Amino acid sequence: xxxxxxxxxxxxxxxxxxxxxxxxxxxxxxxxxxxxxxxxxxxxxxxxxxxxxxxxxxxxxxxxxxxxxxxxxxxxxxxxxxxxxxxxxxxxx
Length: 93
Fold this sequence. Notes:
- The protein is mainly α.
- It contains 4 helices and no strands.
- The model is unreliable at 9-14 (pLDDT under 50).
């Protein structure tokens, strides 16, 4: 397939385009943010006890030694479950 070049294409591409001015909010403008239930739940998981440093070290060591195995079926099942929960929560909202 042959693509023919046109002489006027280069001149139109190189032309400067004017952009419309973007309105910037003033310092006194306030924004109100509402988090979804899922976002609030995820934000609340910052509990230091929910992070197991020992378990992370074990996994890191297993990866370094080449003995860490990935269970693709379990990951897929949890991913589908998570996506299903997200879709259900969006339908209820």
